[in-house]
Amino acid sequence: MPASNHARVSPAPPALEVRDIAKRYAGKTAVRGVSLRIEAGEIVGLLGPNGAGKTTTINMILGLLAPDAGQVMIAGLDLARQRAAALAQVNFQASYAPLPGNLTVRQNLLFFGRLYALPGVARRVDELLESFKLTALARTRCGLLSSGEQARVALAKTLLNRPRLLLLDEPTSSLDPATADDLRQMIRDLAARNGCAVLWTSHNMLEVEQVCDRVLLLAQGRVLLQGDPRRLAAEHGDASLEALFIRIAREPLASGEST
């Protein structure tokens, strides 16, 4: 049989694949055997009470902490062995990390673009100013912007390096409801249009149901539950995702185990 003229195309690797990672601090296990996978264009929620291991997990994905065991793969790149190339595929934003208020919108974007060593950074900044309807505010200091405008600048900043993976830690926690809804819509559109994968942490269960395709619920450093946030509560006999979250958060305390 003659060979096919069509080359076989290998499937793209997932944007993020975490394999059985673990981390201990001062003899206490913060994360134990966490695994997760996020495909291009997928929004996954990472949920859990305070002390569940969310921040430690995020810090290992960002390369700020080295896992004691396990592996982090970003866009098919091993973070431990191909650190620079892997981290070039990622960006991060949190509501508690505002942009410098004394710099203008353009100056902020140029600063971070140069920090990322991006080629053609000025052109990329102009593209993002237009995409996020920020051109008229380009010369305005970020400290003078409304919370909604600042959120748009922060999201534009995360896209400077065209990341395959975005990590968003409580991105709407400081926003009013209308602004938070606008930001959620921007992120949904971004994932759908650009194929950017998103790992989203939040304590707002209604937000999680609106935004996320899947959720993972952590407690005591382990993934206890995962699934569709619109079905998960019913599958486990709870009235709502929030009720499920509260039950999981209280169970370790009820059993006398430390968090």
Automatic annotation (TrEMBL):
Pfam families found in the cross-reference section: ABC_tran
Keyword Cell division: no
Transmembrane segments annotated in the record for this chain: none
Keywords carried by this UniProt record: ATP-binding, Nucleotide-binding, Transport
Keyword ATP-binding: yes
Family: Belongs to the ABC transporter superfamily.
Record-given protein name: Nodulation ABC transporter NodI
Record organism: mine drainage metagenome
